[in-house]
Amino acid sequence: MPENVPETASDFISEFIKEDLKNGRFGYVHTRFPPEPNGWLHIGHCKAFYIDFSMAERFKGKCNLRFDDTNPEKEDISYVEAIKRDVKWMGYDWEDREFYASDYYEYLYDLAVKIIKKGHAYVDDLTDEEMSEYRGTAVEDKNNITNTPPGRNSPYRDRSVEENLDLLARMRAGEFPDGARTLRAKIDMAHPNLLLRDPVMYRIRRETHYRTGNNWCIYPMYDFQHPLSDAKEGITHSLCSLEYEIHRPLYEWFINEAEVFPSRQIEFARLNITHTVLSKRWLLKLVQDNYVSGWDDPRMPTIAGLRRRGYTPEAIRSFISQIGIAKTDSMVDIAFLEYCLREDLNKRSPRIMAVLKPLKLIIENWENGKAEELEAVNNPEDPAAGSRKIRFTRELWIEQDDFEETPPPKYFRLFPGNSVRLRYGYIVTCTGFDKDAAGTITAVRCTYDPETKGGNAPDNRKVKGTIHWLSAEDAVPMEVRIYNHLFGVERPMDVAPGKTFLDNLSKDSLELISTAYGEPGLAKAAPGDRFQFERLGYFVRDPDSSARGTPVFNKTVGLRDTWAKIGQKTVK
After folding, report:
1. What is the residue extent of each domain of the chain?
2. What positions does the entry give for L-glutamine binding (predicted)?
């Protein structure tokens, strides 16, 4: 590992859990991962369920997968299936502990009735705009001190228990139009935390739910549903990202008022990565407005996008493990994620040769029709991977960048009169080149030294450059997609007035190369098979085929390790 890699942060969550077990607050550990099925999971969710599942495993407990599906306007079964697929791909199994908040609707309704009977909830007739006005807003004075002047009680706040019970039942029965009434908790309209100023528990929405259909026309709000679903499942530790810290008093209020299992909420810093947006809301906009090809576009930070890009679960888990669990938000440089990926791929990826922008190389002193098999190592990191045969012929493909008519200083590849080694093969010397009428170089000519096969060379034939190549006779045509950062700036959400994060989209995030060739073995690669294209980077076979019917390979990450150069670069 390079120097200045982020140290694993102090695992404060484990300390809290140990203390809870020691003092008898809980006799076991039970966590949950509660995604809302309104989008696909991204790498930020990986951190969340890594913590949820690993804490349960560490303390020999259990972890539930629960879908908090109380917002039918935005939820769909396709999101449920995508979430399950991604969690499993990351290596986690919830066994028989798959739950849905929608299964608890009757239970939640009964608890709402219970809180009404205690005199701590009421049906309100205020509109959303009126409710916001009555609640009040935070005010910043000239000394930059934020104050929250008291709000005003709703004129419907003092309805009787009997009237509130009747109105809630009629809300459920569908007597009132959408938005006409809400059920609110009766807490404190002067509370400094605006979330505790009589928050909404239920709202009327005539939306078809993907699981319950039209059985309900009132739906519980997240802050009401979440703690009580945790309690229903006996969750001991509800592990949430830091933005829910301000919600914790409300979490505890609903548990106390409903008199249910006392689940405990603990918050941790969410994951932030440079050049990336980690919000389902904004990712959905990228998909819906066709800035990307879909949720699994390899430029997306979704788990599906990372998988299609060629990431491995092991690399992602290593990344999350090494950045640790902290209580303070920070920004992690994406170069460290790429470092973890490169470390993993280097160990597992077979080496193979490919040429992205081909230029013909003709070996003038090689006999026409002659072919020779050379031995190539499959993976120098894994001796058990063995070797393969590659054919050497008179006409080869090399990269256009590996020849210069007039080379710049310190250019050690091919140019007139210079010699290089062809990987696994012979030393060749450039004798000339061909151009077409437009002045474009169409072929490079050379001679080979038969005494220099496979690394052998007389003392007077040492060369500084080695380039890769393919036999033009059996190279497989393919399409290659070169991916770069989707956003050209480190903080895409930092925008000037009048601009949006979309203005930070990079115009160079995708390059399509339809002229590429690879070794014959690539024709048999299955979608998801990963390779190191020698000198070029790591690539993965995409599920797509090109318009020509040829295989498509996505560039996962380059060989160059920028992290080793920049060291730790955590943007504060």
Report:
1. 12-268, 354-468
2. 68, 222
